Every structure is written in C-alpha cells, then in structure tokens.
C-alpha cells in the first residue's frame, strides 16, 4: 500500500495500541465541525470567524481602517467568546489531565451545549440574524470553538489541530522529499484539510441555498456522536489515555 494511503488509513482506522489510540478520527470529526460553524459565522453572521482567530484579528485591522463590510464589534465579540471558551476548556483540561478520554468527554459536552444553544437561538429567532441575536450566536459559537481548541491543543494529536491548517499545509510542502525532508505525512495532513473543506462546503451550501440552520444541526449531530464515543473512551484504561510527557 502506498505510504500516503497507509497514513490516511491509520488515521481513519487507528491502531488502538498507538500512543493516540482512537483520537485521530475524533479530531477529524471536530475539524468538520469547524468548517460547518465557520461557514455559518462568515456567510450568515457577517464576515466574522468563530474558530479562526487569525482571521478575526485581521478583520479587526480592516475594520479599524474603515474597510466596508467588516465589524469591529463582531470581531471583538468573537475574540472575547473564544478566549472565554479557551479559559473554560483549559480548566476542564487541567482537572482531567490524568485521563485523556475524560478530558475529551468533558470538553465535548461543554462544546455541544454551546453549539446546541446557538441552534436553539437560530430556530427561535429565524433569519436574518441581526442585532443582539447575531452577537449572541457569535459569542456562543466562539465559546464552543474555544473549548474545542483548548482540548485539541492539550491532546496534541500530530497534524490534527481541528481549527488551524496553516502549519499543516506548510508541513506537507516543507517536510516532503522535494524540500529534502523526511516525508510529508500527506495522508493524515490532507485528510485534515479535506475534513475542514468538507465542513465548509456543506455549511456554505446550506447557507447559500436558504437553510442556514442545517450546518448547525449537522454540527450538533457530529458533536453528539463524538460525545457518545467519548463516554466509552472515558472508561478506557489503555496507554493512550495517559498524559503526554512534555519535553
């Protein structure tokens, strides 16, 4: 089997005795969620990201410069919500540090609650989402993705950060044979990019075809399934559940 296909296969169907056990496919699922919710936030809530904070910092700069179509308030609400989610996620991570399965479960339950709350707001208010409803949705989704980012960072599954692709794509190029590197690990890295692309594509299709609630419904379903899986993993006692040794 070619190396790329083998890397992709072991990401989707991991060896349970591997250091990260069953975590890679769950990280891919969360990457799909990222694409779904950012499609909603950018296309439906007005040029703001709830997962990609680099984009929001850049958008804030555009807004400061007076560029039309960018909201400084929306960017700051997203940034504030994301930081609040990351702080909450950090507390959950540190409390569950001894067991990576429980760490994932606690963070996923909190994230699912946030995204589900956002879904309820969209169903009750109806589109278009303006004023306080818009900012409430931005805040709820940003808190949820801040939680996700905190746990993904703590789990530290290689090349599966769930919200950041810049370093992943850089690795494909700079680690490849063409660059004189040891190997691009393209199988896993391309899967990560494809997962976000798929989420963004489905999310955008929902918004553009008049079904802005659909991406959030799908995100909640994916998160709910991930929570059920994490419930099982929280009872595991395999080597992958133990904390990573830093340094």
TrEMBL record:
Residue spans crossing the bilayer: 23-42, 49-67, 73-93, 105-126, 132-151, 190-208, 214-234
Keyword Transmembrane: yes
InterPro entries (alphabetical): DUF1275
Keyword Membrane: yes
Pfam families (alphabetical): DUF1275 (PF06912)
Assigned keywords, A-Z: Membrane, Transmembrane, Transmembrane helix
PANTHER family assigned to the protein according to its UniProt record, in alphabetical order: SLR0142 PROTEIN (PTHR37314), UPF0700 TRANSMEMBRANE PROTEIN YOAK (PTHR37314:SF4)
Protein name (Swiss-Prot/TrEMBL): YoaK family protein
Species lineage: Bacteria, Bacillati, Actinomycetota, Actinomycetes, Kitasatosporales
């Amino acid at each position: 089997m070619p190396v790329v296909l083998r890397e992709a296969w072991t990401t989707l169907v991991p060896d349970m005795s591997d250091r990260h056990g069953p975590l890679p496919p769950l990280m891919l699922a969360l990457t799909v969620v990222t694409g779904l919710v950012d499609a909603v936030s950018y296309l439906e809530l007005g040029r703001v990201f709830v997962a990609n904070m680099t984009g929001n910092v850049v958008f804030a700069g555009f807004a400061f410069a007076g560029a039309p179509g960018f909201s400084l308030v929306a960017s700051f609400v997203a940034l504030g919500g994301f930081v609040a989610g990351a702080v909450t996620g950090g507390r959950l991570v540190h409390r569950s540090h001894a067991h990576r399965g429980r760490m994932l479960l606690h963070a996923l339950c909190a994230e699912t609650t946030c995204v589900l709350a956002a879904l309820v707001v969209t169903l009750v208010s109806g589109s278009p989402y303006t004023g306080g409803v818009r900012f409430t949705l931005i805040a709820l989704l940003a808190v949820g993705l801040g939680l996700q980012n905190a746990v993904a960072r703590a789990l530290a599954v290689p090349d599966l950060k769930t919200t950041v692709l810049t370093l992943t794509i850089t690795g494909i190029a700079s680690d490849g044979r063409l660059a004189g590197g040891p190997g691009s690990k393209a199988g896993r890295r391309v899967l990560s990019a494809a997962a976000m692309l798929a989420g963004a594509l489905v999310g955008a299709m929902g918004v553009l075809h008049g079904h802005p609630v659909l991406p959030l419904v799908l995100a909640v379903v994916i998160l709910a399934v991930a929570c059920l899986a994490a419930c099982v993993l929280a009872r595991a006692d395999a080597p992958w559940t133990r904390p990573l040794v830093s340094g």
